[in-house]
Amino acid sequence: MLCERCHERPATVHVTKIINGVQTAYHLCEVCAKEQGEVFPNPFLMGSPFDFNKLLSGLLNMESSSGFAPVTTQAQQRCGTCGMTYNQFTQIGRFGCPDCYDAFSSRLEPLLRRIQNGLRHTGKVPGSAGERQQLARRLEQLRRELQQAVAQEQFERAAQLRDEIRKLEQGAQ
Amino acid sequence: MSLADFVKRTISKWMRETGPEDDIVLTSRIRLARNLKGFPFPTLATDAHAGEVMELVRQAAENDAMKRLGKFEFIRCRDLSPLDRQMFVEKHLISPDLAQQEKHGAIVLRDDEVVSIMVNEEDHLRIQCILPGLRLQEAWNLASQVDDALEQTLTYAYHDQYGYLTACPTNVGTGIRASVMMHLPGLALTGGIQRLLSAVSQVGLAVRGIYGEGSESFGNLYQVSNQITLGESEEEIIANLMSVVQQIIEQERNARKLLMERNRIQLEDRVSRSFGILAYARKMDSKETLERLSDVRLGIDLGIIQGVSAGILKELMVLTQPACLQKYYNRELSPNERDVRRAQLIRDRLRMSDTEVHG
Question: Where would I find the UVR domain in this sequence (chain A) (predicted)?
Fold first, then answer.
């Protein structure tokens, strides 16, 4: 949807005003919303159109001020892989990399409890993760059997096992 | 290009075909968020990372498992004109955010446009399936198959406890967003809509306008979707959404029946006026277009208007958007010109028979 004032930029500010029972809706871009200051007496709305990430970071900041540990040290906690700090996460509402979930798990869990239905995934599991795990286990078992066969000088059996291992390894690549 | 040819070339399967309950449910959509293991999320990705992710996805889109699922094309955003990208947004194939990702964004699109995969949006991958009517389970099955096929050559960021890891913790776990686009003019006219919408939001579902997050509803179109992604399985999430959608459908049908019984003449007058305006007006803005189309569609569903296909709402709500209009008239149009051309396109379309368009 385009801004109804300039018809140029996308409308990102949506406001419904009700005055004496008369309802008026405005759909403006950020620029026009600021220029139309008198329409939006709420300074919070003018300076920073409401968006989800800001709501999320609001929740997160609430979290940090209610803790027992000093806020600054917690906020400076850093993900060892991508270097993102918890503070940065609260500002943009998005993590830097998959490892952030472990790096910030103690801070994350109260948040997940609030916005999700529990802390444990119960849905689909990556197929290949399961397959890879199975394959790895099977290879491990075959290698053990191979060692045993060699130790017991069952060379025919050992050759069979070696071929099977080779086939599985090639299939995995 | 004739209008019939343009319509044929432009509309996707979800606009063209019908489906269960499609007097009320326009589309069912499943979106899965996935990320690749060993790469930062797009928020922090360097040019090299983003390029590598794109290349890995391009290769995965060509693997044998994907070939079995249909004909896919990998398209980089930078190879599309801004107008074409905007058209993809208007057709609900990509998000406005992806359209902005000129440098690192890409789309993997199936030829019937039922499946679209966004690359380097908020997450590395957003797999989307969109089907006409109420077919959430089918859309989920298909999305899951595409997910499995891509996984033959990609390794996802997955956590034993948290599930599929996503840039934003609001998507973590299943990474699923199931949404249903509903046309609810009966509830809007009888005043039941606000009560219903607040009830829906209390059971963990979100209601949005058709332009997505934060947008107001136009043309009585609402998107209902799940918010929770962790702690419930995909099947539970879909079943929960389905049961709420079924209840909304029932209430909408009751509202329509009530209107026909108690306010028939007012209703007939309203939809017929809207039809007259669409058929003869010389200037139409997009908001009024959606409102009038909503009335006409209601009139078709209730048998008040005959000889016009019910698909007209889905078709014209997309074709009258700015990028589509400019594509059809093959030049840039000022907002004022657009209103004139939009009215013209609607008039022309209403005078065509459906066989001309859909063959």
Answer: 136-171
> How far is the alpha carbon of A42 from chain B, nearest alpha carbon, in Å?
18
DSSP A24: E
B163 Cβ under 8 Å from any chain A Cβ: yes
> Residue B200: which region, alpha, beta or left (left: phi > 0; alpha: psi -120 to 50)?
alpha
Handedness of CA B88, B210, B249, B264 (dihedral sign): negative
Phi-psi region of A118 (alpha: psi -120 to 50; beta: other; left: phi over 0): left
Question: Could you say which residues from 74 to 93 on chain B have a Cβ atom under 8 Å away from some Cβ of chain A?
Answer: none
Please tell me the distance from the alpha carbon of residue A152 to that of residue A148, in angstroms, as a whole number: 6
Q: Is residue A37 classed exposed, middle or buried when 0-12, 13-18 and 19+ CB atoms within 10 A define those classes?
A: exposed
Look at B174 and A121 and tell me if their CB atoms are within 8 Å.
yes
Reported ipTM:
0.88
Long-range contacts of A52-56 (CB under 8 A, 24+ apart): A52/A93, A52/B170, A52/B213, A52/B214, A53/A92, A53/A93, A53/A94, A54/A93, A56/A93, A56/B168, A56/B170
Q: Please check whether residue B65 is in contact with residue B74, taking contact to mean a CB–CB distance below 8 angstroms.
A: no
What pTM value is reported for the model? 0.79
Strands B72-76 and B106-110: antiparallel
The residue of A95, A111, A120, A133 whose CB has the most chain B CBs within 10 angstroms, and thus the best one to mutate to test that interface, is A95
* Confidence bin at A53 (pLDDT 50/70/90): low
- Please give the structure tokens belonging to residue B34: 């996935």
> B29 near B179, Cβ under 8 Å?
yes
The token pair at A89 is: 């996460």
Supply the DSSP string of A95-126, one letter for each residue: -SSTTHHHHTHHHHHHHHHHHSS-SS--S---
Q: What is the pLDDT of residues A96-153, one digit of tens each?
A: 999 999 999 999 999 999 999 989 998 898 875 566 656 777 888 888 889 999 999 8
Q: Provide CB contacts within 8 A for B189, sequence distance 6+.
A: B255, B259, B267
CA distance A23 to chain B (A): 14
Cα B50 versus chain centre, distance: 27
Quick one: which of A31, A91, A154, A5 has its CA closest to B335? A5
pLDDT tens for B43-73 read 999 999 999 999 999 999 999 999 999 999 9
B313-329 residues labelled b (16+ CB within 10 A) or e (exposed): bbbbbbbbbbbbbbbbb
Helix (H, G, I), strand (E, B) or coil at B181: strand
Q: Each residue of B21-39: pLDDT tens digit?
A: 999 999 999 999 999 999 9
**Element (H or E) spanning A65, and its range?**
helix A52-66
Contacts of A88 (CB under 8 A, 6+ apart): A96
Selection from A85, A84, A63, A68 nearest residue A76 by Cα: A85
